[in-house]
Design the sequence.
């Protein structure tokens, strides 16, 4: 049984609201999940102080998310981004950039220094 951590969309048209859920990989997007880990509201809300940047609300049950990651649940790309914002995962772009840099070093290191 392959498990995914992904977003299930709720809300009205042009006003999305997402539940962060753990579900089987082959189930439909809005089918009944195994567990709801939290919510994500992508529409920016004004800051409560009055001044400052608007924020997007992310609520997550961190211990349960750690549990499901430890059991082997694979996060989707949007869920990976949200989990990295919370601090549970490394941002994926850092991993890709590091891999790209090592590949570039290998490619450029094989050339001789004269450039020919």
Sequence:
């Amino acid at each position: 049984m392959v498990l995914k951590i992904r977003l299930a969309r709720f809300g009205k048209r042009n006003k999305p609201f997402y539940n962060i859920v753990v579900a089987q990989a082959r189930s439909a997007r809005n089918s009944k999940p195994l567990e709801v880990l939290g919510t994500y509201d992508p529409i920016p809300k004004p800051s409560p102080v009055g001044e400052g940047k608007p924020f997007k609300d992310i609520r997550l049950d961190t211990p349960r998310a750690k549990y499901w990651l430890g059991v082997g649940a694979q996060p989707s790309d949007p869920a990976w981004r949200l989990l990295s914002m919370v601090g549970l995962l490394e941002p994926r772009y850092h991993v890709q950039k590091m891999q790209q840099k090592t590949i570039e070093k290998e490619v450029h290191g094989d050339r001789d220094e004269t450039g020919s």
